[in-house]
Here is the input.
Amino acid sequence: MSAQQLLAQLMDGRWHGRTSALTGSQIDALRPPHEDEAAPVSPIDLDRALVPALAVDGRATYPDLARRLGWSESAVRRRLEELRRAQAVRLEVEVEPAVFGYSTQCVLWLTVAPTHLINVARALAADNEVAFIGAMTGVHNLIVITVLRDSAALATYLTDRISALNDIERMEATPVTSYAKRTAPRH
Here is the structure.
């Protein structure tokens, strides 16, 4: 066993399959309102019930939340919008890739010369197979999480795409068989 620290997320987007079943307006609804206007908020009584309720069911409607929490629908709606604007609450879509025909996930541990790290990360970030890229401490300084249709697609990706990047000195591939938790804080 070894433990490393994630130093930086090096990919702006997320795996395209994450929101592939949603319409454009549904994807827009997940985005925080006015990202550039984030302001701190102080917790209020409603938050102590609202946040745990959302953790249990992030798809709950305003009327359902209001009924469960004993607050008015308008108060719940207004407070959730305030928390989202302050970026104190973030809505994420978590998808099981197999539902969309992607049965193979793999973590790639790459060793890249530090001077080439950003270039390799940018090149891989454009790939549809890539769900996450991060710089990290340790022998392998780049972690890449991939999502592919099957083992044959993984083999092709490793032999055709990864091997074509001359700046990768070493690679290890670890298949992912299950997740305990997928969402991680953004940095």
About this structure: The longest helix spans residues 73-85.
